[in-house]
Amino acid sequence: MSKDAILNTIRRNLRRGPLPADQAAMLDGRMATHPRHLIPARSRLPRPEQVALFVRNLEKEFATVERVPEPAAVPAAVADYLAAQNLPSRFAMAPHEELDAIPWDDRPMLEVERRRAAASDQVGVQHGYAGVAETGTLMLPSGPGRPTTLNLLPDTEIVVLRATRVVGAYEEAWDLLRAEHRDALTGGHMPRNVMFVTGPSRSADIEQTLELGAHGPRRLHVVLVDDDPAALPMAEAAPVPPRTAEPGGRPAPGD
């Protein structure tokens, strides 16, 4: 059933005809302009602090994070994490072009299977679309290169995310999606599904006892690729120049 058919059925059951022209224009304008809601001040930070906030909030929500300097370091980070958690080296991986470009063959013990997840998978590697610093949340829209099953079925989910994709607030993540995604069928901006993931799956419904893995992955591990020079910690982004000295060992002027 089409969207128009659904809406017309709702209007008919409400005994309401088409919207008046002024109301329709007002709604169309709101949909076109994407008005901003209140944005928390805690995410309005310089880039190094913003990415650090994202990491802190991830860890606060029971996720783990490893920062690596480049994509070539991802296989070693994944292999070390799997070994530390006593997990198998075989995993399902999203068939995304950025993940395909990573040199997984550098770690021949890793068994990479590029596909959607199955219920029997213990580990899945997903491509991270964006991260939201204010809550430590991952934005994971569905697509051929980012199967939704990888967010739900494996007991352990590993997400590879670039630091350039960390934003302060949810509104900025939606801005990215609107700017970069266009559905070929409808011409709209939204994919079939957008998941926001904040930490591993958990529930305290039964006797207020926290249980991890209640409705999805028991573990969430993020490999954050530091591809944004502006987001590096200050000590790494601007190393202190060595002290100089005049002949005879006396400190140079200004030292």
TrEMBL record:
Domain LUD as annotated: residue spans: 57-225
Chain segments carrying region Disordered: 233-255
UniProt xrefs under Gene3D superfamilies: NagB/RpiA/CoA transferase-like
InterPro entries: FTHF_cligase-like_sf, LUD_dom, NagB/RpiA_transferase-like
Pfam families, A to Z: LUD_dom
PANTHER family xrefs: LACTATE UTILIZATION PROTEIN C
Protein name per its UniProtKB record: Lactate utilization protein
